[in-house]
Amino acid sequence: MRKYRTSYPISWRIMDVLEAAFASIWPKGGGKYTPYLMLAPAILLVGALVVGLLYIGDSSLRVLDRSTFLFSDHWTIENYKRAFSESFTLTVIWRSLLGAFIVTFFTLLLAFPYAYVMVRTSSSFLRKFLLIALFLPFFIGQVVRAYGWLIILGSQGIVNDALGLVGVEPIRLLFNYPAVLFGLIQYMLPFGVLMLAPAMTAIPEEVEAASGSLGANWIKTLWYVIIPMAKPGIIGAGLVVLTLSLTDFAMPAILGGGSQDFIANAIYDQFFRTSDQGFGSALTIILIGIGSMMVGLIFMVFGAGTLALGSEKK
Amino acid sequence: MSFDKKFNRRDLLKTSAAVGAAGVTTLAMPSVLRAAEPDKPSELIIRAWGGPWVEALKKGVSDPFTEKTGIRIKHDLTEDNEIQPKVWAAVAQNRTPPIHINWDTTTNATKSALRGVCEDLSDLSNIAGTTDLAKPVGVDGYPIVNTYGYVYVLAYRPSAFPDGAPKSYHDLLADKFQGRVAFYNDGIGFHFPAQVAGGGKLEDIPGNMAACWEFVEKMKAQNPLLGEDPDFVTWFQKGEIDAACTISTNALGAKKNGVDLAWTVPEEGAKFDTDGLWIPKGHSESDLYWAKEYINSALTKEAQQVWLDGLGLPGVVEGLTPPPGVPVPDPSYPTKPEDFDRLIRISGQVQVENESEWFSKFKQIMQG
Fold first, then answer.
1. In this complex, is the C-beta atom of B228 within 8 Å of any C-beta atom belonging to chain A?
2. How are beta strands B262-264 and B145-156 bridged, if at all?
3. Nearest-CA distance from A258 to chain B in Å?
């Protein structure tokens, strides 16, 4: 016999209370507007972000007067003109974009087999081990992890110590672009695996067995069966990793040795180092614009339906 | 009761003299002391830098102030440049600012002064006993009171310079220093010596800094590390670098941690700058009074001696004893007018008006 609590869950009871409260306030009911009212929390959440964005947009159109450190009363596109004419800004944008794509590529390359093994393995020990290895980094913040790499890869770090044992002189492994990308890939890997794992789980093992029984080797099965079926997960993971990498601050700041700034670092400098919130806001809008365009482009190429959002590619 | 009986001529003269003297004394007293002592707040919030910086402030200024007044001091360790927008927003919206006193770089504080968010500190009685260093350059009056100076020295590992201290920034261009030198990631402290090292003149700042950028280009070829204050200490400790343009406090800090380190002012000179204290507008009269009292107490010889012993920096009152480990006489710890001959001091206003461009140009060269 099923327990009452299971047959009538607590969430339903909450809904009953809310419905009763709603009925007491508005006895006639919302009618056709009820679904829209249900959207209110989401609209509030997004609305708060939009209001913030409007403020940033407004700031981006005001120029800082350095004799008073006040912003202009009128709107101007001066900050945007400066952003697209200043070679440093263009360098930083290009570095961030390139870095985001490289990190996404390698993260997916590593996350895919990890997720596959985690989902398919028959060994519960291995599955638990992979899960622990996946979740453990989430308990350690990005900054701490970056400092960990400083200890491991530094001139007097573990790697150089090991190289020293075979007679290799210490080499500079940190404070360069590859070090930043390496740190980002390590940071993004759990996100990639977490996004891919549900997609992998959704692929029935029988489909793979059928592919094999029809004569396909494992490469063909991977290419023609698993990857196409895991596409929603791959695209989702790619989107998450791409946008997070593009907007990252800590890894370029710590592992880049001050010489590998991403856009977020440039924004921080403008807001907090030179007190130019106008230019910082313009860079923020540019960053949001680039991120949104990339997401839009991916949807255009692969279709929103790829993410199982309920529609075919359009 | 007649007037004559109660007040004779002698009494009248005595009374007049007493009243007159009291009046003169009262007028001569700064207004901050003249005012009746208002109610004490339970605490004052002072923004400070963490680690040895806040420890030094606590020992030299905050603890004695609490002992004397009973007002608790809370140190807010938010970074100076991160508290700035919060303070500006609070003043603009007529809210009470999140801190009572900002311990700030003078350059950063100058921005707040130009924006008009600083209280006037001209009436602090102890300003009279300070040197010219206490007066911020490029702003009217005392919206900020400078409390000590510091020099962006050339710190070096003696073992990497067997022939003695580097004489010039040109010495760092040797092949063996490839990847072994460090600067601040925005070039602060290095722009002005680089102008000289590149063959330019300091008088041309800010109009023509081509010589500076030419020399920064040369230095870029050395693939230097770029960082912030804590990075320099770490890099010296970890053996990552042999030389760095950094403030002497960092060099002293690394030395105290057992790193074999020395520092010098090269022939190009070294940037001299100051830090100071200021009060944001928007506090109640009583809070303002006690915040001013705190700053006033920081300008006494006793407070300066203990505070700056912890920082290893020269103060703004005469007769302080240099702390152990600090090389004296030396321009890196300037105490005499001739020490300043080798130091470069550019007004805060010129710096804040141009630093964005300088930082951007430096970063473009170094990261391009």
1. yes
2. antiparallel
3. 5
